[in-house]
Amino acid sequence: MAELTNILHCDLDAFFASVEQLDNPSLRGKAVVVGGSRHSRGVVSTCSYEARKYGIRSAMPVAQAYRLCPQAVFLSVNMPRYLEISQQVFSVLSQYSPIMEIISIDEAFLDISSCSRLYGSPEEIGYSIKKQVKLELGLTISVGISYNKFLAKLASDMDKPDGLCIIAESQALELLRPLPVSRIWGIGEKTQESLDRLGIKTIGDIQDLPSGWLEDKIGSAGRLFWELAYGIDKREVETGHERKSLSREQTFPEDINDSTYLEKLIAQFADDLCRKLRKEELQAASITIKLRYSNFKTITRSKTINPCNSDIIVSQIAGELLQNAYKNKEPLRLFGLSLGHLSAAKSLEQGSLFESQLKTDYKSIDRLMDEIRERFGPEAINRANLLNNKDIE
């Protein structure tokens, strides 16, 4: 009887850098780093495989990447272009199964349980996807195939770039055993340090533990890690995966302590994020600001609010959070704004008579501005507090 391998994990290779090389063929074969100019204080978003040979990795400071490979080509993030290509890739994937879970801009799961009669075996489907993405979009995509999400994702990373790997159930325990615990989904740096103190370094070390031992030591996550170590993952591919938050942040070219500039930044971030909320018919019930100081100390401050998608309200509350949190005026290297606890926007909201009237006025203005921008372009109209603010990217 054939083993069940009905889950595919499809992951574009070095996505941002690959799009840049696609759009500019002169970059092919070169070390490309996407994240900012070589003098920026940002971090690497993605780098080409040519750059990875020099030790450059995602989330590394751009300045460090430059030291490792000064001859690399350093480019700013072009998110609109990446989103455009991402949508085209997901359109290809959706042709092979209606059960698709998008988990980031460059990767998704497919459940192909009922697709074999149309498209063949899981391996044939995987190769068909790779061929179509390459022919239609000029990009390579790695495909992992297994009987659950954890192992499918692990498989897609085992034969990169442009790979296809299958992990059957009969192979799983032996394959997992020598791998470091960091390969288990959900184990980050801090958890890895905790496991290391317990003498647990490999997935095999977890397999050798009694089923409840790790849970007793580190809490409920211990049970999950033990199950994943045994290749057990009961999560289904969820087509209705909902967005939980929206955020924007900026790393400054030089440290700043200018409250007026930060207030303008809040206004611009709020305008951008709330416009996205309204477009997706969502509203936020929490507002969070993030401050990162020159010594890399990072703090966040949040407030729960009545659900809304008005940038005026978000700007006002975020401004209050900033005023209360940023009293020492120490130099900042990064500021961020996040809107969370998202839910479907409601046509009617409860509240006081005056509050309801206020929100109604905001909604009317927001709707009118959205209509003007939709018709005449994003820069056709702006709030007064965003004028003369071109220095904010």
Strand order of the largest sheet: 5-6-1-7-8
Question: Which descriptor suits the 3D outline?
Answer: globular
Highest-level CATH class of the largest domain: Alpha Beta
| Total DSSP helices | 15
Would you count the extended β strands for me? Answer: 13
Question: Could you state the CATH homologous superfamily of the largest domain?
Answer: Reverse transcriptase/Diguanylate cyclase domain
Overview of this structure, please?
By secondary structure, the chain is α+β, with helices and mostly antiparallel strands. It folds into 3 domains: 1-171, Reverse transcriptase/Diguanylate cyclase domain (Alpha-Beta Plaits, 2-Layer Sandwich), CATH 3.30.70; 177-229, 5' to 3' exonuclease, C-terminal subdomain (DNA polymerase, domain 1), CATH 1.10.150; 245-386, DNA polymerase, Y-family, little finger domain (Dna Ligase, domain 1, 2-Layer Sandwich), CATH 3.30.1490. Helix content is 41%, strand content 20%. The chain is built from 15 helices and 13 strands. The protein has helices at 15-23, 49-52, 62-68, 79-94, 116-119, 122-137, 149-156, 169-176, 189-197, 203-207, 213-218, 221-229, 259-279, 311-325, 353-376; strands at 7-12, 32-34, 46-47, 73-75, 100-104, 107-111, 141-146, 164-166, 245-256, 282-293, 298-308, 332-340, 343-344. The strands form 3 sheets. The protein has a 5-stranded mixed sheet with strand order 5-6-1-7-8. Strands 9, 10, 11, 12 and 13 form a 5-stranded antiparallel sheet that branches. A hairpin with a 2-residue loop joins strand 5 (100-104) and strand 6 (107-111). Helix 13 (259-279) runs antiparallel to helix 14.
